[in-house]
Amino acid sequence: MIADNTPVWDDEPSWRPPAPLQGNADCDVCVIGLGGSGLVAVRELRANGARVVGIDAGDVGAGAAGRNGGLLLAGLADFHHDAVARIGHAAAVTLYKRTLVELDRVFAEFPDVARRTGSLRIAASADERRDCVAQFAQMQRDELPVEWYTGPEGEGLLMPSDGVMQPLARVRAMARAAIAAGARLHSLTHATSITGRSVTTDRGVIFCERVIVAVDGRLELLLPELGSDVRSARLQMLATAPAPDVSVPRPVYWRDGYEYWQQLPDGSIALGGFRDTELESEWTSDATPTPAIQDRLERFLRKHIRTSAPITHRWAATVGYSHSGAPICSEVRDGIFAIGAYSGTGNILGALCAREAIAWAMRGRQHALVITST
Ligand SMILES: Cc1cc2nc3c(=O)[nH]c(=O)nc-3n(C[C@H](O)[C@H](O)[C@H](O)COP(=O)(O)OP(=O)(O)OC[C@H]3O[C@@H](n4cnc5c(N)ncnc54)[C@H](O)[C@@H]3O)c2cc1C
């Protein structure tokens, strides 16, 4: 039997979501969205002594943060040489280096959940191999960690600093730590409107000094002023039962990263991809898996990864893509800060943006992630 839009990561039957908000609340900062980014924001706020209320329309990790491929990748969604061309050399190098620091933090903080395995970008064609050469050269020039790779997966690049994690276990651990540190978290509490000093939800009003909106997919629905910068897309995955017929020691990024997979400690394969093959219909905020993409994933699993392990899970979630290629990390209205639109790779970038937004919101320090399109 295949789990119905449930990620393979949802393996903790004893998990209980935090209780919904009941009535009005008062705090210094309200964080909307309890994914990885929102929970880093909550933690940073508590470390700054702020009174925090964090809410989520669903559960902790109900969005992409608990439903993703679990790859921990340095840099932006664009490969480094593309990021240099798109947002400028200084910004691309600074961001890459800051995500390396963020990676170190995750591996140190979650040794039971995250593993530094390195990651592979494997070329799916001669053209892509040439692109790998260009990326390799740019990364070497910028003294960023990269090795040329040839192995059973094919030819391409090895990023030794990257790794994998169990994404839902990470966000649940962060939520438990946030509650223990004095934050108030509420699930099933949907923000419907935000003003400078309050967040109205379906359960009550939260009065606050500042608001952090930490929502990746569907960000433009909550903050319509970002509609010209951000667009939501659906990404889909499947997972198998333990697959003893294959060995995947490191996560693989294939065909420009459109396909990606990792093997879990129990041997299961988690595989995602093929968004570009149904591009128009995948620009959506609907997070339901579709037969067209799931069929492609299944064929790839059998023909390319070459496992016959039965499929146990199929799921989807939405993420935000930015038109500039850089994430959103801005004060969109007075006292309202938005982070999101990581263009498909937000596990590390989201944590970095959260840290940056809190420094900005609490200390008035201007946005150090200065990003402009070139
Ligand atoms: C299938 C898939 C595979 C991916 N693979 C990878 C990968 O391998 N590596 C990687 O780095 N990235 C990957 N990503 C992207 C990554 O998962 C996201 O960028 C990241 O998890 C975003 O986390 P977040 O906390 O910023 O936002 P989200 O996880 O989107 O969290 C936002 C939360 O806000 C809540 N919310 C939304 N609107 C409201 C509202 N109005 N009121 C209250 N709450 C609200 C949602 O319920 C959600 O829980 C993948 C994404 C998907 C979908």
Protein architecture, described:
The protein is α/β, with parallel strands linked by helices and 374 residues long. A hairpin with a 2-residue loop joins strand 12 (191-195) and strand 13. The strands form four sheets. It has a nine-stranded mixed sheet, sandwiched between helices. Strands 11-4-3-15-22-21 form a six-stranded mixed sheet, covered by helices on one side. It has a four-stranded mixed sheet with strand order 2-14-13-12, with no helix packed on it. The chain has helices at residues 36-47, 80-87, 89-109, 126-141, 167-180, 219-222, 279-282, 291-305, 349-363; strands at residues 3-4, 25-26, 29-32, 52-55, 71-72, 114-115, 119-122, 147-151, 154-159, 163-165, 184-186, 191-195, 198-201, 205-207, 210-214, 230-240, 252-254, 259-263, 269-272, 311-322, 328-333, 336-340. The radius of gyration is 20 Å and the shape is globular. Helices cover 29% and strands 27% of the residues. It binds flavin-adenine dinucleotide. Residues 32-38, 55-58, 62-65, 67-71, 73, 190-191, 214-218, 222, 235, 237, 260, 272, 317, 319, 340, 342, 344-348, 350 line the site of flavin-adenine dinucleotide. Flavin-adenine dinucleotide (FAD) binds next to helix 1, strand 16 and strand 20.
